[in-house]
Specification:
The protein has 705 residues and is an alpha+beta fold. 41% of the residues lie in helices and 18% in strands. It has 26 helices and 22 strands. Strands 5, 6, 7, 8, 13, 14, 15, 16, 17 and 18 form a ten-stranded mixed beta sheet that branches. Strands 3, 4, 9, 10, 11, 12, 19 and 20 form an eight-stranded mixed beta sheet that branches. It has a two-stranded antiparallel sheet with strand order 1-2. Helix 4 packs across helix 12, helix 5 packs antiparallel against helix 6 and helix 16 crosses helix 19. The protein is globular.
Length: 705
């Protein structure tokens, strides 16, 4: 018999008859955390106090950083990869006094680090294995995760917060197993009213941490830059440079924005490229490096906020195929995931409709029958590649490492691979320890990152948004968004906002009426090293992850503002638009949604098909058998509707399933069938036509328009 009680700090009490050694008192665990925190701060108290002073000056420009990287000076450390791990290594190395450089092929956090479940795990899922299997390694992983979670919540409180997560219990035999943490059925439904109540016995509540992963990654990078590190995105490593003994002494790189190329000299090179680990390892040691990365694809979906309470998540620990699925409030929406399947390494992982349907089906099993879980409610979907690794030092090459591994190649290349978001700081610490030892580097101190505040945390408090409302005349939700995104730097963004010309709000032009993102944030994003429209909509803001339709709609304004800031030509602006639209369609699930509509069986009655055909003919007056942009333009003009030319093309594109530039009658039928069946919950063209012509042509699923 075993039971567990969970508190806001993690696991409070664990009792088991399996073995006395695992009769763990987590009060001592919390005491251990405090002792460790105090140890780090006492050991480097003066240095940490100095490092934690808020930098008043502006960030260096990307051009300034590239100039520093290309001057020919030798760095102590060159890091390849700007995800969570690479960013953590850069911050750790720089704050120890090492001269640090970092290059990232795409954008900071463009890969796995921005596509996570948004949780800072406290290691609870490892606890059962630690107890029941007497696994000391798993227990150590729990201790490590609890400490790292606590530290991350402390050093970036504006980007992270505790989140209660509910584990519903539907079987009587589970009740004694979870007895000390059990909540009554009525309490469970009060906290999570969307939950299925049939056969519900109770629920377990435990606390984890939640964060804005891409912004957290960027905060680590910006903090490293503030302390002197030279970190550049959109810079590709073409090859690793070596001396006459075959030792790596730097890299030849290319700026993907300007096309410029140069060498970066470094005493040590660190490979922190996640799923692309093996490609850099092969550059360093082509004759001896065996592949160690076994990437796994995890798909998440975004649903409207009403699918979950704003302050409680849900955990399904036992899905139909044995995987774990989380169902969480995030950024006023709801995210669900993840799947887990082997995948090829790719720069552009894409969610499949099969994975999306799997997640939806699992959700249906936990939510009340009064909540209709519709395919059309999926606002966005994305796939992230988790870089699982095999330990190259073990003979059994089939088994995957539970945690991270650090490898030193014959060339001197140091590789850090595996791990998870929660432990990025600990991984970075061990990596820098290894590099310092192997390459005999001289540091000013040991690791000082426990307690080291990240960008925006220094003067932030939870009521800061009120000052933005009162001092600048911002809407409350906009002020909260700025405060929780930029921390104490939110005032810099506020000062960049233009007057609205309205009584209220006084400042703050929204990019989209449904979301709190402002046009001033686009200008600020350029100062945070955004180089492409995708950098802005996916990572500086999170709109592409929240709603693909809204992301498409704001793109022209995003590109226009970036064009003003970066001096883009008309041709470059068009290219940025095309690339960003392709990103949304392929990587954010828009194409998967259209696939779902295309593949759904036609479910219209004869009467509904006739009404849909009549609506089609109102647009296709020449009886060509298809509808063009010219047909839409002419129809709206005839009915005194002023529709922007850009919107006309968007309306056609949303219905044009085969992408031939026309809407055919079969696609029109499929559109109305999708609305009826729930594969779609709304469509702008249908909405406009209903406004002009009145009665809808089909019965919509659950009243959705």
């Amino acid at each position: 018999m075993s039971w567990v009680r969970f508190t806001k700090t993690g696991v409070a009490v664990v009792a088991t008859s399996a073995a006395a050694i695992f009769a763990l008192d987590m009060t001592n665990e919390r005491r251990f955390q405090r002792q460790m925190k105090d140890h780090f701060r006492i050991a480097h108290a003066d240095r940490l106090a100095e490092l934690n002073k808020r930098a008043p000056s502006a960030l260096p420009t990307r051009k300034d950083i590239l100039t520093s990287l290309s001057k020919g000076e030798e760095f102590d450390v060159l890091i390849i990869g700007g995800g969570a791990t690479g960013a953590g290594v850069a911050l750790d190395a720089q704050t120890r006094g090492l001269k640090t450089a970092l290059v990232e092929l795409d954008d900071f956090s463009s890969g796995t680090s921005s596509r996570s479940t948004k949780l800072i795990h406290g290691g609870v899922r490892y606890l059962q294995a630690a107890i029941m299997k007497l696994d000391l390694e798993q227990y150590r992983m729990v201790k490590e995760a609890l400490f790292e979670r606590h530290n991350l919540l402390e050093i970036a409180p504006h980007l992270s917060s505790p989140l209660p997560i509910m584990l519903p219990i539907y079987k009587l035999w589970q009740v004694p197993y979870y007895w000390s943490g059990i909540k009554a059925k009525s309490q469970a439904l009060e906290r999570f009213p969307m939950l299925k109540n049939e056969s519900l016995k109770g629920a377990l509540i435990y606390y984890d941490g939640q964060h804005n992963d891409a912004r957290m990654n960027l905060a680590i990078i910006l903090t490293a830059i503030r302390h002197g590190a030279k970190c550049a995105n959109h810079v590709r490593v073409e090859k690793l440079n070596k001396d006459e003994n075959g030792k790596v002494i730097g890299a030849h790189v290319k700026d993907m924005v300007t096309g410029g190329e140069w060498d970066i000299k470094a005493k040590a090179v660190i490979n922190a490229t996640g799923p692309f680990t093996d490609s850099i390892r092969l550059m360093g040691d082509p004759e001896t490096a065996r592949p160690i990365c076994a990437p796994s694809s995890g798909v998440h979906i975004t649903l409207p906020g009403y699918y979950s309470p704003s302050n409680t998540g849900l955990l399904d620990p036992d899905t139909s195929d044995g995987r774990v699925i989380f169902f969480l409030p995030w950024e006023r929406m709801t995210i669900a995931g993840t799947t887990d399947a082997p995948s090829d390494v790719t720069l552009s992982p894409q969610p499949t409709d099969h994975d999306i349907e799997f997640i939806l089906q699992e959700i249906r099993g936990y939510l009340s029958k009064d909540v209709s879980v519709r395919r059309g409610d999926v606002m966005s979907a994305w796939s992230g590649l988790r870089p699982l690794v095999r330990d190259p030092n073990k003979k059994d090459t089939k088994s995957l490492a539970r945690n991270h591994i650090i490898e030193v190649g014959k060339s001197g290349l140091v590789t850090i691979a595996g791990g998870k978001w929660t432990t990025y700081r600990h991984m970075a610490e061990e990596t820098v320890d290894t590099v310092v030892k192997v390459h005999d580097l001289k540091t000013e101190s040991g690791c000082v990152t426990p307690g080291l505040l990240l960008e925006g945390a220094h003067d932030w408090n939870s009521l800061q948004y009120i000052h933005l409302v009162q001092d600048y005349g911002m809407e409350v939700d906009v002020a909260q968004h700025l405060s929780n995104t930029y921390g104490d730097r939110a005032f810099v963004v506020a000062r960049m906002c233009k007057m609205t010309g309205k009584r209220w709000p006084i400042v703050g032009q929204r990019l989209h009426p449904e979301f709190p993102y402002l046009d001033a944030e686009v200008r600020y994003a350029v100062r945070e090293y955004a180089c492409t429209a995708v950098d802005v909509i996916a990572r500086r803001m999170r709109l592409a992850f929240l709603n693909t339709y809204a992301a498409h709609e704001v793109l022209p304004d995003v590109v226009r503002v970036m064009g003003e800031e970066l001096g883009w030509s008309y041709a470059e602006q068009r290219q940025q638009l095309d690339k960003a639209r392709a990103f949304i369609d392929l990587e954010m699930g828009q194409n998967a949604k259209q696939t779902a509509v295309s593949n759904a069986p036609l479910n219209l009655t004869k009467e509904e098909m006739q009404k849909a055909k009549e609506r089609f003919n109102q647009l296709d007056k020449d009886r060509k058998g298809h509808i063009t942009v010219n047909d839409l333009r002419k129809h709206f003009r005839e009915h005194n509707q002023k529709i922007d030319e850009r919107v006309l093309h968007e309306l056609l594109n949303e219905v044009d399933l085969n992408k031939n530039g026309e809407i055919e009658i079969a696609e029109f039928f499929q559109l109305y069938s999708g609305l009826k069946g729930g594969q779609l919950t709304s469509n702008r063209l249908v909405g406009y036509l209903d406004e002009i012509h009145g009665t809808p042509s089909v019965n919509r699923a659950c009243g959705g328009i």
